[in-house]
Amino acid sequence: MESIASNLGAIREEIKAACIAAGRSAEEVRLIAVTKTKPAGLVREAFEAGQLDFGESYVQEFLEKQQDPQLEKLPLSWHFIGHLQSNKVRSVIGRVSLIHGIDKLSTAEELSKRAVQHNINADYLLEVNTSAESSKYGMQPEEVLGVAESLFRLPNVTLRGLMTIASPDPQRARKEFRSLRLLLESLKLAAPDPSKLTELSMGMSGDFHEAIEEGATMIRVGTAIFGWR
Length: 229
Description:
By secondary structure, the protein is an alpha/beta fold. It is about 40% helix and about 15% strand.
């Protein structure tokens, strides 16, 4: 069995190769190591191999992991990448560097309310259902521009970009990644400050090459680093 360090090294080489193929710099793509269902010891092992960004999907598991004695003093950058319900916002705000899974205006409003209460600014991404699969969360692409003005007006929160989970088929996924990139470009035209809209969180273990070629700035990889859950 390959070690986490060697898996991370291999992924980074693949990121570099995909960026070269797309005429991009590898520094443009951030690797989020997905650690849901993985114990704190494996997170620490990945950190010791140079990984700083980690993604969690379940609120209770994330809170337990963040407070684990093996991890609590480490300079980790946590990302909440799962679907976030409004009633769970209070549990993660101020604890993560970026929330990837906001898919309703009402949830963004709750995030804003909590951020004002804590006197902090919270960064988030809007999750978009580019595959039109009913099993996936996310706002429909055609809804995004309609709520954009309301999102931009919310205090103490900053919309940083878009996130999606694509179809299992890499060729379909590529089209969905492309559509997300084009949607972000349209969103920038409506934004009071387009320079803040910099992130496309898309691509996982099976399709991150296609995602990078279509403009991903963040890829979320778990299985290729830690093995099957």
